[in-house]
Amino acid sequence: MVQQQLPPTRYHIDRPEALALYRDMVLGRTFEDTCAQMYYRGKMFGFVHLYNGQEAVSTGVIKALRPDDYVTSTYRDHVHALSKGVSARSVMAELFGKATGCSKGRGGSMHLFSAEHNLLGGFAFVAEGIPIATGAGFTAVYKGTDQVSACFFGDGATNNGQFFECLNMAALWNLPVLYVVENNLWSIGMYHHRASSVVEIYKKADAFGIPGVRVDGMDVLAVREVAKEAIERARAGGGPTLIECTTYRFRGHSLADPDELRDPAEKEFWRKQDPIPRLAAFIREQELATAEELKAIDQQIRAEIDDAVLFAEESPEPPLDELYRFQFAEDE
Amino acid sequence: MPVKLFYEALKDAMAEEMRRDPNVYVLGEDVGHYGGSYKATKDLYKEFGELRLLDTPICENAFTGLAVGSAMTGLRPIIEGMNMGFLLLAFNQIANNGGMLRYTSGGQFKIPMVVRGPGGVGKQLGAEHSQRLEGYFNNVPGLKIVHTSTVYNAKGLLKAAIRDDNPVMFFEHVLLYNLKEDIPEAEYLLPLDKAEMVKEGRDVTVLTYGRMRHHCSEALAELAARDIDVELIDLIALKPLDLETIGRSLKKTHRVVIVEEDMKSGGVGAEIVASIDEHYFDYLDAPVVRLASKDVPVPYNGRMEATVIPQPHDIVKAVEEMLALRV
Ligand SMILES: Cc1ncc(C[n+]2csc(CCOP(=O)(O)OP(=O)(O)O)c2C)c(N)n1
To answer: In this structure, what are the phi and psi dihedrals at residue B105, rounded to the nearest 5 degrees?
Structure first.
């Protein structure tokens, strides 16, 4: 199977920024590892799709956005929510089905929302969130704001009609949207090269006359650089960008997937490019922080996640007499 | 009072609401320059511009999703389905996101969206252009469903649907766009959850909606000549159903005939029968009779087509047979 490793990149970044990126990626990783534990302990149910390995994409793109920019995600949405600023407490509580969850226990793992953070949702159907982000981009043009919207989806989604339909409309109307493909090479058990007639997804942008870029999705600094440029272009009225991030998921498709199909050598190849040690090494080489300082961040985050679990455990269930609440706009 | 055509009433409703609220916009295929396939948006783009009469490419699922995304972020889209049947391609966005997203987000987002357009069995349009979608969408939680059949109602209901903060499926009928009626100049709105008492009567309640209202009116004239006094109710609200009005009527007549253009299996009529059974069974003197379309794709052939949907003489016959059982 074809392996791809893009050439290493070097970017200038200051200490606070570098540590913020590091912190966000560790937060995502620790949160997801904890989800696995909680799932196996019977604290959360249903389909839970973890994000391990892909953190550089969420962090690299979302941390370059403004708080009033919009994000849509997929069913692999926990880490996008965290990067967007939704607290670990409210995401964990949602996964536990509690009233304090970010969707008040009505959404669950694949339906995380936060109006406060302009997180327009996790979407359980493949490619379903792409039109929603496109609509948020349309609102920005309609209202004349300079808000940008970013949507995340997998390589599998780029073979779905909604992807093509939306790229066409976004190009036509110059919508400020970042279409971010997280190309982790697999759609459950379907290898990307068996599903896409054109395996270089970023080239699909050519069909719509919009910029398409491929970036090493295991390198948060590289992703961030590409995202910044696309965001700037979108804000200035320059329209959408298709960004293909080459990445890999370290775990099975979901926690119910034993992950027996993928070649161990392939997994090993990608593990070596883990974005978190990679950024840590960069930070130490550049003397932006010491190993001890990074370790202190790891510990802080561990404590934050432990607190989130405690909060989720102790939170109340949504009351049963509120079963119908929130269905219609009349129920506030 | 000015005389208006059905499509003009719809156009006036949209224009008035667009003047009132800058966040209201219309999108769909050919709604702008072309003016809509049934002229409901004719020339509106000249007043409101291309952004507010957005001509979309032919991609029902994605533009419906775009509308949902724009509704979540502060706009109030009106989607025109060129023919409602095409919105089967948008079923995903209407059902999963339009209908359910407010709930799954724990009430954080509103979806103030109207999905409107022509549907129903026209004149030999063939199966795919003769669809009635109310049964399909009736099963989706979170949607309101309205079917309009008169010029007066069309305007007042559409204005109310545009102002409603929920997704509303707003069904029109291809054969009604050229109906004429005097309607008031002054602004009025009509409730989305109320049936209309078309004619009071004491012998039988006929429940109907959409174009079948006009078939029922024809049948009523004939029945009146035979001294049968029918109470006719246009349901308008298909979801939620106005069970109160239905109940009040059958407590008076104790007999119900349902006339609908949707297919029999799983249609709105099936839902009404079940609801009557649940709430008002004791008041019935006879089993509810259901006239609906046959469960078959609508054939092109005109004579065959006419046999698919209930005709006025079918309604007359059903009412007479029901009363023949009277002791
Ligand atoms: C419309 C639709 N069809 C099928 C599925 C089942 N499904 C869930 S995830 C998935 C694979 C998607 O792969 P990809 O888009 O590459 O994203 P990844 O899981 O790799 O992040 C499939 C087929 C679905 N959720 N939605």
So the answer is: -90, 5
**pLDDT (tens digit per residue) in A189-243:** 999 999 999 999 999 999 999 999 999 999 999 999 999 999 999 999 999 999 9
Which residues contact residue B265 at a Cβ distance below 8 angstroms, ignoring those fewer than 6 apart?
Answer: B295
Alpha-carbon distances, residue B262 vs A318, B131, B243, B268 (angstroms): 38, 8, 19, 7
Is pTM, for the whole model, over 0.90? yes
Give the Cα separation of B31 and B41 in Å (integer). 6
Residue nearest to atom 18 of ligand 1 (CA): A154
Q: Give residues with Cβ within 8 angstroms of B86, minimum separation 6.
A: B60
C-alpha separations of A99 from A95, A108, B141, B282 in Å: 11, 11, 21, 41
* CB B208, CB B156: distance < 8 Å: no
Nearest chain A residue to B98 by CA: give it: A132
H-only helix segments in chain A: 15-40, 55-62, 78-83, 88-95, 129-143, 161-172, 192-195, 220-235, 264-271, 275-285, 291-314
Task: Check A139 against B73: CB less than 8 A apart.
Answer: yes
Q: What is the ipTM of this complex?
A: 0.89
Distance B146 CA to ligand 1 centre (A): 34
Q: Taking a C-beta distance cutoff of 8 angstroms, is the pair A294, A283 a contact? A: yes
